[in-house]
Amino acid sequence: MDTSVVLIHGTNAGPWTMSKFSRYFEQRGFRCYSPAYRHHDKQPSEQTSALLAETSIADYVDDIVEFVETLDTAPILVGHSLGGVIAQKVATMGLARAIVLLNSSVNWGILPTTDQERALGKMFMRAGSFWQGTLLPDFDTMAKFGLNKLDANEQRRVFDRLLPESGRVMFELFFWIFDENQTTKIDYDSVTCPVLMVSGADDLAIPPSTARLIADQYGARATFHEAEGFGHYLTLEPEWKKIAELCSNWMNEQKTTV
Fold first, then answer.
1. Pairing of β 76-80 and β 31-33
2. What 3-state DSSP class applies to 102?
3. pTM, whole model, 2 decimals?
4. Element (H, E) at 33
5. Cα within 13 Å of Cα(239), Cβ side
6. Which of 164, 172, 174, 178 lies 20 to 30 Å from 83 when distance is taken between CA atoms?
7. Type and span of the H or E element at 171
8. Taking 70 as the threshold, does the pLDDT of residue 164 lie above it?
9. 160 in helix, strand or coil?
10. Crossing angle of helices 57-68 and 82-91, rounded to 10°
């Protein structure tokens, strides 16, 4: 039986950001699925924008749990950025065979380790009461923090496909210390499956020094890989196949060890 892989995208994005990895994994015998969070499958209307503004990361977790529970067996979860947080939350419920975290966003209790991360937080502070609406960072911010390993034309092409994100979701991610619901808090001991964490060495949003703090919470269950020459959107970068191959090889190992 093919091993199922569920690819979970990040903020402001959709399944299209995971499509290259999905095709690569399918060519290597995995059965892949790329569900979208609610209101992330098309350009938002005025009505869906209002609904999106009220959504929480907890809602996105529910979306992925609902999908995973339709599968016959627990899948491997591959989460990028916010998708990494959601993969961990789903894994705490015993619904994952293994999890792959690609530049996973920080979760509750993980402090920034670099000036660049603190600068990104300040950028959100200057956006006013962003948690009450939707938010899409401007092109220059995305080019610096998310798309810095793409050429100028590709940066613009990717940016033009991005969608506004729930401001509440951004608040829960970047200002977890003020989130009374502790939405992104992970019960690490409940994640009993193997964990692969891949961290782009040139990721300014979630640098390796911060990613290691997350991996350390899992002890021997986690394998940490610092990807030299990669930034945040490593699923779209020119050398993406190197990361896909790394992940595929690791996932194949889980077929026989899990």
1. unpaired
2. strand
3. 0.95
4. strand 31-33
5. 11
6. 178
7. helix 167-174
8. yes
9. coil
10. 60
Residue 132's CB is within 10 A of a number of other CB atoms, namely 11
Rounded CA gap, 220 and 117, in Å? 27
Residue 123 contacts residue 145 (beta carbons within 8 Å): no
| CB-CB contact of 85 with 188 (8 Å) | no
Tokens 């999905």 — which residue? 22
Q: Tell me the C-alpha distance between 12 and 3, whole Å.
A: 28
Task: Reply yes or no on whether the pLDDT at 46 is more than 80.
Answer: no
Count how many residues are written for the chain: 258
Q: Output the pLDDT for position 41.
A: 78
* 33 CB-near residues (< 8 Å, 6+ apart): 4, 5, 6, 7, 67, 71, 75
User: In 18-163, where does DSSP find H-type helix?
Assistant: 19-27, 46-53, 57-68, 82-91, 115-125, 139-145, 152-159
Tokens (6 digits) for 70: 């339709």
- Residues paired with 189 in a beta bridge: none
Taking the C-alpha atoms of residue 21 and residue 241, their distance in angstroms, rounded to an integer, is 8
